[in-house]
Write a structure and sequence with these properties.
The protein has about 625 residues and is of the alpha+beta class. The protein folds into five domains: about 5-50, no CATH class; about 75-210, no CATH class; about 215-305, no CATH class; about 315-505, Rossmann fold (3-Layer(aba) Sandwich), CATH 3.40.50.10860; about 505-625, no CATH class. About 40% of the residues lie in helices and about 20% in strands. The protein has helices at about 40-50, 50-75, 80-85, 90-100, 135-145, 180-195, 210, 215-230, 240-245, 250-265, 270-285, 290-305, 380-390, 415-435, 475-485, 500-505, 505-520, 545-550, 575-585, 620-625; strands at about 5-15, 20-30, 110-115, 125-130, 150-160, 165-175, 310, 325-330, 345-350, 355-360, 365, 370, 400-405, 440, 445, 530-535, 555-560, 565-570, 605-610. The strands form five sheets. Strands 7, 8, 9, 10, 11, 12 and 13 form a seven-stranded mixed beta sheet that branches. Strands 3-4-6-5 form a four-stranded antiparallel beta sheet, with helices on both faces. A four-stranded mixed beta sheet has the order 16-17-18-19. Helix 10 packs antiparallel against helix 11, helix 10 (about 250-265) runs parallel beside helix 12 and helix 14 crosses helix 15 (about 475-485). It is elongated, with a radius of gyration of 34 Å.
C-alpha cells in the first residue's frame, strides 16, 4: 500500500545466527513512487515484527520504571487471553495490568472511563476491573441510573502467573450528547464505585453527575433531603423529584452551591454576602420555571436548605474519610410542609443502611429512641409518640422528645443475631449523627462540634432513653457518648448498668398496672385473685408488655401479637401460661415463636405476621368474638 504495489515476492534467508533476513520485492502497479516515506515504512514494519508481549513489556517499563515494570511483566505478560490481544495493543494492556495489580485480594474493584483513540466521535467506554466476574444484570442498572445507556459488553479473563484469575469488563456507553467528558470522568468513576460498595444509593438522582458538576457526596445530600421530604408527607413522589432536579440542572447546581456556602467550614469569603448573592440568583432562575409543580419541588429544596442550621457533611472519620451517614439539624418552624405540631428542634440522619429522626420540643427535653418498622412513615409514628411524651414529661423535665430509626438493608429477621447486630450498628450511627451536631461542655465552656458551621445558638443538652426495640441499649448509647467525650457521660442514656434498668425494675409497667387494677376494681374484678382474659399487643421481650404480663398470675392471655408473630391460645391453663411467659421474659431476644407449642391449647398456635391469612379454629373464633362467614 505504501509503495502502490500490485504484488509482493519474498525470500527468507536463515543462518546459524539468532537473526533472520526476509527480502521483499514489491512490483508497482504503474511505477514506483519517487519519494516514499521510508522512515514511516520502516517503523510500521518494525511494529509488525514485534511480539505483543514485547510491546506490553516496553510500555510497562516506560510507565512504571524498571523494578515495577519487570514485576508486572512477570505477572501479566502472558496473562491476557487471545481475545483480549486481538482487541487491545500491548501498550494498552500495560495500563490494565497495573490497575489489576492494585486490586484487593477478595473484594477489589476499579473502573476507568475512557474514549478509544481510534474510536468514533463521542464514543465512550467503561472498563470494570474486578477480582470476580461481574454480572451484566448487576452493573447495567447502576449505569442506567447514572444516565448511561449500555450498548455492548465484552468480558476478559486475566490469569496472572502469581495469583488467582481476574476480570476486565469493557462496556460501550452512550452518554447524553452535551456531556463534557473531561468534566464528568473522575466523578462518574467515583460514583459508580461508591454505589457498587453500597456507600451511595442507586436511584435516578445519580444522573445529576452527567448534567451538573455535583459529585457523589453532593448528590447524596440532595437525596437525604428527598428522603426527609417523603417523611413529612411532601406531595410529590421521588421519581418526580428526580426528574425535576435533572430537568432544572442549573437551579439544582445553584441550590447545592447554596448548601456548600452555608455549611462548608473551608469557605473563606463573606458567607452571608455569598448566600445573599446565591439566593438572588436562585430566585431569578425560579421565576423562569414554567411548571408550578416543578417550582414547588425546587423551592422545597431551596427553603429546606435555608431551614437547616447544622450538618455533619464535612466531618471525617479517624481514617480521614467522610462519615458513612449524613445528619442535619433543622429549624422546623422554617421548614415548609412540616405537619403540626412542630418541634423546636429536629435532627435527620440519612444513610444507605438506615434513616432516623429525632424530635425535641425544647432545649431541655427527654424521650426514648424507638427501633421502628414503619419504613414509609416512621416520622409520623415518632411525632405521635413525642406528643404523648411531651405530656408525660411535665412532671420530670420541662418538655418531651422522641427519636426513631428504621433499617433499610436489614438481614432476614429470622436470623436474630444478624438482625440484632445490624440494628445495634445503625442505632450507634444514629446517636453518632446526633452527637456530631451537638455542642459539648468542657470545663463549663460550650465547645462547638468540629467542622460544623452553626446557624443557631449554643445547644449542648441531649439525652436519650429506651423505647420499643431499644430497651437494653442504654449501655450501648452511653458507650457512644463516652467515645465523643460528651459532657453528660453515662447520663446521656437513662438506664443501663449504671442507672435504673427499666426492664429489670419494671418501672413503667408497674405504674401502668396500678391504673389497670383501678379500672378493674370499678368493674368489680380483683386482678390479683380472679382469672381474667387478655388480648395483648407486644411480646415478652419488651419492657412494658413483658413486665405487665407477669404482674398477675391470673392473667389468661388468649391472644397477642407484635411486629413478627401472632399468638392465639383460646383456652390457656393459667398457671402453665404464666410460667411460659416468665420463661420467655428471661430468654434474651425472645419472640412469640419461642413459645412452647405443646403448651398452647387446642385450636391455637403461633403465626407469622407476614401471612396473608390465618384459618381460625372454632375455639379461636369464639374467644376472639369473630364470626367467619
Amino acid at each position: 500500500r505504501s509503495l502502490d504495489g500490485q504484488s509482493v515476492e519474498y525470500t527468507p534467508m536463515l543462518t546459524d545466527q539468532p537473526l533472520a533476513r526476509i527480502h521483499y520485492l514489491v512490483r508497482a502497479l504503474q511505477e514506483a513512487p519517487r519519494n516514499p516515506d521510508v522512515a514511516a515504512l520502516e517503523a510500521s514494519i518494525a511494529s509488525l515484527a514485534r511480539r505483543w508481549e514485547d510491546d506490553c513489556k516496553q510500555a510497562l517499563m516506560q510507565s512504571y520504571g524498571e523494578s515495577v515494570g519487570l514485576s508486572l511483566t512477570n505477572s501479566f505478560a502472558q496473562a491476557f487471553s487471545s481475545v483480549y490481544r486481538d482487541d487491545f495493543p500491548g501498550a494498552a494492556a500495560a495500563d490494565d495490568a497495573h490497575v489489576l495489580s492494585t486490586l484487593a485480594p477478595l473484594a477489589g474493584m476499579a473502573v476507568r472511563l475512557y474514549r478509544p483513540l481510534n474510536g468514533s466521535a463521542g464514543q465512550t467506554r467503561l472498563k470494570i476491573y474486578n477480582t470476580a466476574k461481574v454480572a451484566l444484570s448487576d452493573s447495567l442498572p447502576v449505569l442506567e441510573r447514572m444516565g448511561a445507556r449500555v450498548l455492548d459488553e465484552q468480558p476478559y479473563k486475566v490469569t496472572p502467573s502469581d495469583g488467582p484469575s481476574l476480570w476486565i469488563h469493557d462496556l460501550g456507553l452512550q452518554l447524553p450528547q452535551k456531556t463534557v467528558f473531561s468534566s464528568i470522568k473522575a466523578r462518574f468513576e467515583a460514583l459508580f464505585l461508591q454505589v457498587w460498595r453500597n456507600e451511595v444509593d442507586s436511584d435516578d438522582l445519580n444522573q445529576l453527575v452527567l448534567v451538573t458538576e455535583l459529585d457523589a457526596r453532593s448528590i447524596s445530600v440532595l437525596r437525604a433531603y428527598t428522603r426527609y421530604f417523603k417523611q413529612i408527607g411532601f406531595a410529590f413522589s421521588q421519581s418526580y423529584i428526580e426528574s425535576t432536579l435533572r430537568k432544572n440542572a442549573e437551579i439544582t447546581q445553584q441550590v447545592a452551591a447554596l448548601f456548600d456556602v452555608r455549611f462548608n467550614p473551608a469557605f473563606a469569603d463573606d458567607r452571608q454576602q455569598a448566600q445573599q448573592q446565591l439566593s438572588q440568583r436562585i430566585d431569578a432562575l425560579l421565576s423562569a420555571v414554567a411548571s408550578l409543580e416543578e417550582d414547588h419541588v425546587l423551592r422545597q429544596f431551596y427553603q429546606g436548605i435555608l431551614a437547616t442550621v447544622r450538618t455533619n457533611v464535612w466531618q471525617t472519620t479517624v481514617s480521614g474519610g467522610f462519615k458513612p451517614y449524613l445528619s442535619f439539624k433543622f429549624d422546623p418552624r422554617r421548614m415548609p410542609g412540616i405537619p403540626e405540631p412542630k418541634p423546636m428542634f429536629e435532627i435527620w440522619v440519612y444513610s444507605p443502611r438506615f434513616e432516623a429522626v429525632h424530635l425535641r420540643n425544647g432545649k431541655v427535653a427527654r424521650g426514648g429512641i424507638r427501633w421502628s418498622d414503619r419504613c414509609e412513615d416512621f416520622r409520623t409514628e415518632i411525632l405521635g409518640l413525642v406528643k404523648a411524651q411531651h405530656v408525660k414529661n411535665t412532671v420530670i423535665v420541662p418538655v418531651g422528645s422522641k427519636g426513631g430509626f428504621v433499617l433499610k438493608t436489614a438481614p432476614n429477621p429470622a436470623d436474630r443475631d444478624a438482625f440484632l447486630a445490624e440494628g445495634i450498628a445503625c442505632y450507634k450511627l444514629f446517636l453518632s449523627g446526633m452527637l456530631d451536631l451537638t455542642d459539648n461542655l468542657v470545663h463549663g465552656d460550650v465547645v462547638a462540634p468540629v467542622n460544623v458551621v452553626r446557624h443557631d445558638p449554643d445547644d449542648p443538652y441531649l439525652v436519650v432513653a429506651a423505647d420499643k426495640g431499644t430497651a437494653s441499649f442504654s449501655d450501648i448509647a452511653n458507650s457512644v457518648s463516652a467515645d465523643y467525650g460528651f459532657w453528660l457521660g453515662d447520663a446521656f442514656a437513662s438506664g443501663g448498668s449504671v442507672g435504673y434498668d427499666h426492664k429489670k425494675m419494671g418501672i413503667t409497667a408497674r405504674g401502668a398496672w396500678e391504673s389497670a387494677k383501678r379500672h378493674f376494681r370499678a368493674l368489680g374484678v380483683n386482678t390479683q385473685t380472679t382469672p381474667f382474659t387478655v388480648v395483648g399487643i407486644g411480646d415478652m421481650s419488651g419492657d412494658v408488655f413483658g413486665n405487665g404480663m407477669l404482674l398477675s398470675e391470673h392473667i389468661r392471655l388468649v391472644a397477642a401479637f407484635d411486629h413478627r408473630h401472632i399468638l392465639i391460645d383460646p383456652t390457656p391453663e393459667t398457671a402453665v401460661s404464666f410460667a411460659e411467659r416468665k420463661r420467655l421474659f428471661a430468654l434474651p431476644r425472645s419472640s412469640w415463636d419461642d413459645y412452647a407449642k405443646a403448651l398452647i391449647s387446642d385450636g391455637g398456635g403461633v403465626y407469622p405476621r407476614s401471612a396473608k391469612s390465618i384459618k381460625l379454629s372454632a375455639a379461636a373464633q369464639q374467644v376472639l368474638g369473630i364470626e367467619v362467614a
